[in-house]
């Protein structure tokens, strides 16, 4: 049976099928501390997790605290993260965030949305990644390019703005699923529902996805 045009995928069904397909989703950025995940997530903007994970082992050995990042000349940190792209702006954000951690939070990454949003370079996506994966707090849903794309294709939102997309997803899914939902949608976007050529024939949601008409 073909999916009904313009009808969104039922949230409960999406949860069930993606959970079966990706039973143990996790953040694909490598980290060992809240600071490391904060830095890695800032680096992941306009960059793949694979590339970030190639850069961070040496970076995290060199810079172990907010003070270490601040002590380095900006040009040195820029060289260390150059391959992640937008390295000047990312250096400014990392050092700005570390300065605020030292000035306002005793050098520790805070565990609330409001506090994280005061850090340079941190918007809701980064804050949600840190809260969900370090502190096990679901205050929202991390909306990256994959979540943006799949939310539209699945009929879960009509918005393009990440904050509005997040609001729609939060209303549709139970809070305890928010962190794992983001991981599962990201995995599905990387492996099946890709940007250029979605594999609708191999998708577990093809019988209920409104976008399946357009490609299959």
What would your notes on this structure say?
This protein has 216 residues and is mostly helical. Helices cover 55% and strands 0% of the residues. The chain has helices at 11-21, 34-43, 49-62, 66-71, 74-80, 87-104, 113-116, 124-134, 145-153, 162-172, 178-191, 212-215. The longest helix is centred in the middle third of the chain and has 18 residues, at 87-104.
Summarize the structure.
This protein is mainly alpha-helical and about 220 residues long. It is built from 12 helices and no strands.
How would the blueprint of this fold be written?
Blueprint: H1 11-21, H2 34-43, H3 49-62, H4 66-71, H5 74-80, H6 87-104, H7 113-116, H8 124-134, H9 145-153, H10 162-172, H11 178-191, H12 212-215
Helix pairs in contact: 2-8, 5-6, 9-11
> Radius of gyration, rounded?
18 Å
The total count of strands amounts to: 0
Helix content: 55-70%
Class derived from helix and strand content? mainly alpha
Q: What proportion strand? A: under 5%
Please count the helical segments: 12
- Gross morphology is elongated
Question: Which terms would index this structure?
Answer:
single chain, 216 residues, mainly alpha
């Amino acid at each position: 049976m073909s999916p009904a045009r313009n009808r969104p995928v039922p949230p409960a069904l999406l949860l069930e099928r993606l959970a079966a397909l990706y039973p143990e989703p996790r953040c694909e950025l490598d980290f060992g501390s809240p600071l490391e995940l904060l830095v890695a997530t800032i680096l992941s903007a306009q960059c793949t997790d694979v590339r970030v994970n190639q850069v961070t082992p040496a970076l995290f050995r060199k810079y172990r605290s907010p003070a270490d990042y601040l002590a380095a000349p900006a040009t040195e940190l820029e060289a260390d993260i150059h391959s992640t792209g937008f390295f000047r702006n990312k250096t400014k954000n990392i050092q700005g965030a570390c300065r605020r951690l030292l000035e306002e939070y005793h050098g520790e990454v805070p565990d609330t949305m409001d506090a994280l949003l005061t850090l340079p370079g941190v918007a809701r996506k980064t804050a949600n990644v840190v809260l969900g994966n370090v502190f096990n707090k679901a205050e929202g849903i991390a909306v990256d390019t994959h979540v943006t794309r799949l939310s539209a294709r699945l009929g879960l939102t009509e918005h393009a703005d990440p904050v509005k997309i997040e609001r729609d997803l939060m209303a549709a899914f139970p809070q305890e699923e928010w962190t794992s939902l983001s991981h599962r949608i990201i995995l599905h976007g990387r492996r099946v529902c890709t940007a250029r050529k979605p594999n609708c024939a191999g998708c577990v949601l093809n019988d209920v996805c409104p976008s399946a008409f357009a490609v299959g």
